[in-house]
Amino acid sequence: MNKLGGFRFDRRGMVAAMLASVALAACGSKPDQGGEKVAAAVVDGQVEKPNLKLGFIKLTDMAPLAIAKEKGFFAEEGLNVTLEPQANWKVLLDGVIGGQLDGAHMLAGQPLAATIGYGTKADLIAPLSLDLNGNAITLSNRVWQDIKPTLPTEGGKITHPISASYLKPVVAKFQQQGKPFNMGMVFPVSTHNYELRYWLAAGGLNPGYYTAGDVGGTVDAEVKLSVTPPPQMPATLEAGTIEGYCVGEPWNQAAVQKGIGVPVITDDEIWHDNPEKVFGLRKDFADKNPATTAALLRAIIKAQQWLDADGGKNRAEAVEILSRPNYVGADKAVIAASMTGKFTFEPGDTRDAAGFNIFFDKFAGYPYYSDAVWYLTQMRRWGQIAEDKPDSWYFETAKAVYRPDLYLAAADKLVKDGVIPAASVPDTDGYRGEQGGFIDGITYDGKQPNAYIAKFKIGLKQGQRVTAAGVSGS
């Protein structure tokens, strides 16, 4: 047990209480009206909906779903799951909201944005984080050749991390020629959008602000960002439509293999051990199907453990599974380039990257409130949240969407059954401590969101708004 704010925090006791509350919410009854039966169903694993369809995008970080399916973890929990690839993140989101999908491999920002009504309004939850890290930023060959001679080296290799400040002369040259400097990301509320913006801003380049009528976020932009589905990133780069992109694997390594681009920085170098995708569900699905939800989470947690077991001994098998056409469908060598502890930046420059994909270690599956708060701070920083919000709003929104109570209910059952070690489940109030490991040296405290936003040189300040004419306000 931990001592927090003068009170003793008993996580196991909290889980028991949460289980009861989830059960009662699911049936809409008081304890004497049958709530005990629902609670028993959660504990006993009597799933309400055994046949399920889950969506995903063709990225290696969908691995926990593929492994839960292929290694029989869904079946062990009494679930018959169909995994269905989706054309893009908007189609996936609409499928979950509309009920065509029971849940999905989601961008961490999607359930948050839907809940606050940015884009599509819907009550979604994230009861589990799928992974840490897994993305990179790739530049076109011509841009790389422009900046490479200016980069510092050490031992004959380029020194990492590479700052976006080295792009400034290239961007200036484009501006002098009257051309925009375009880069791609996968969705307006994606981790990739915020990581790319973070990297650019840390290097002194403004990636632009959003207004209500500007889904591109191009107001005052020195670098213009556009949306491209992950599997189409290499082809879009090769066509010259964009000069670089931020995407998950294997689509950075695909650029290396095709000889069309060079990854210059991984997201772990932008924010060390950053949270990436989540498993997203409709809130009403979890409320109506508590045992099914718990079974889904247990199966995915078991898959996450399998992926990180014994220093990655199972990764080669995972690569083979992911390479199949019904999953990621990329060459084994391309997937293995990042999934097996190495990362290639350019031919001849392959480096150790043991933590490039983390699925279970470092409490990767736990949905921390502070992770949700970080995404919300970036939405406000770039104008997707149009007005200032008090700190309390960030906390309340995070708790409405990120559901560690559901995660703990599933994880504690696995601990009790001896499936996962007790040490793999954190004792926490839902917030990480103050975090460093950002490329700009700024520290982040999830309990002080407005103070964090104020630290950035580039980004909206308190009282500021964005219009088509630019940023206004104090």
Q: Gap between N and C termini, in Å?
A: 44 Å
Rg, rounded, reads 22 Å
Count helical runs. 20
**Count of distinct structural domains:** 2
Overall pLDDT metric: 91
CATH superfamily of the largest domain: Periplasmic binding protein-like II
Helix content: 25-40%
Structural class, please?
A: alpha+beta
C-alpha geometry: globular
Q: Order of strands in the sheet with the most strands?
A: 4-3-5-16-6
CATH class of the largest domain: Alpha Beta
Number of strands: 20
Largest sheet: 5 strands, mixed
Q: Which features characterize this protein?
A:
alpha+beta, D-Maltodextrin-Binding Protein, domain 2, 2 domains, five-stranded mixed sheet, globular
Would you kindly provide a written description of the structure presented here, covering whatever features stand out?
- The chain is of the alpha+beta class.
- The chain has two domains: 2-132 and 275-367 and 402-424, 3-Layer(aba) Sandwich (D-Maltodextrin-Binding Protein, domain 2), CATH 3.40.190.10; 135-272, D-Maltodextrin-Binding Protein, domain 2 (3-Layer(aba) Sandwich).
- Helices cover 39% and strands 19% of the residues.
- It is built from 20 helices and 20 strands.
- The chain has helices spanning 11-27, 35-44, 63-70, 73-76, 89-98, 109-116, 141-147, 168-176, 191-202, 233-238, 253-258, 267-270, 283-288, 290-308, 315-322, 332-339, 369-381, 391-401, 404-416, 449-453, and strands at residues 2-4, 7-9, 51-56, 80-85, 103-107, 124-129, 135-140, 153-154, 157-158, 182-185, 209-211, 214-219, 224-227, 244-248, 261-266, 277-282, 342-346, 349-352, 465-467, 470-472.
- The strands form eight sheets. It has a five-stranded mixed beta sheet with strand order 4-3-5-16-6, sandwiched between helices. Strands 14-7-15 form a three-stranded antiparallel beta sheet. A two-stranded antiparallel ribbon has the order 1-2.
- α1 (11-27) crosses α19 and α3 crosses α14.
- The longest helix has 19 residues, at 290-308.
- The relative contact order is 0.16.
- The model is unreliable at 1-43 (pLDDT under 50).
